[in-house]
Amino acid sequence: MAAMADMIDDGERAPVRVLIVDDDALVRAGLSMILSAASDIVVVGEAADGAEVPGAVSRHAPDVVLMDIRMPRVDGLAATETLRSRPQAPEVLVLTTFDADEFVLRALRAGASGFLLKDTPPAEILHAVRRVAAGEATLSPTITRQLIAHVAAPAPPSRTRAAERLDQLSERERDVALALAQGRSNAEIATDLHMSIATVKAHVSRLLIKLELNNRVQVAILVHDAGLV
Prior knowledge:
Residues 17-133 form the Response regulatory domain. Residues 162-227 form the HTH luxR-type domain. The chain folds into 2 domains: 16-149, 3-Layer(aba) Sandwich (Rossmann fold), CATH 3.40.50; 156-225, Winged helix-like DNA-binding domain superfamily/Winged helix DNA-binding domain (Arc Repressor Mutant, subunit A, Orthogonal Bundle). 50% of the residues lie in helices and 12% in strands. It has 11 helices and 5 strands. The two termini are 27 Å apart.
C-alpha cells in the first residue's frame, strides 16, 4: 500500500511520492509542474515507457505511479500488471484520453486504483493523487457510469461467477461492496451505513482478503460484473 500514512519525525505526514510515466515529454512536464506546486506531493522521478517502470520504481520508491496507457514499447496496461504483482507495490493511477475505455477497464482489473483524463483540472489531479495515496480509489460515480456504459455487459457465466464470489460476504460487507461500486468514499460510506470510518476500513480490508483482490476498484468492478449496480 502507499506510504502516505507514514509519519515523519515532526509529526506531520510524509509527502506523497509520485512517479510520472508517459512517453510525451510535454505531458510529463505539465504533470510535474502541477504536482510540484503542492506542498504535500513530491515528484520523485519520470519514465518515458512502461519498460522503464520496474527500474524506476526500485530506484525512487514512489507511493503513486501516474501511468499512461499508450506507450511505444511496453504499454501502461502491461506495466500495471507487472507492477501490481510485486510485493509492496505502489498504487497506480491510469492516464487516458478516454477513447480507450476497454484498456482502462483492463488496467483497473489489473490492480490500478483509478484513472484520470489527461485534461483533468489540476486541483482534481492533486485530489486524486492524495486519495489514492490514502488508500481510496479515485473513481467517481459519474466516471464509473461513463466507463461501464462503454463496456459490454458480462456474459451470463461471468455474471454468475461474480455473483458467486460476492455470496461469501456478510450482509454488512455486501453493503460496503455496493457502496464502493457507487464510487463512495470511506467517509460517505460511514455516513450512509451509520458506522465509523475505522469500521468501514476494516470491512474494506476483509472484502479484499475474502475476494482475493488488490484494491477497492476491483471490488467495484466485481459488483458491476455481477449486475448489482
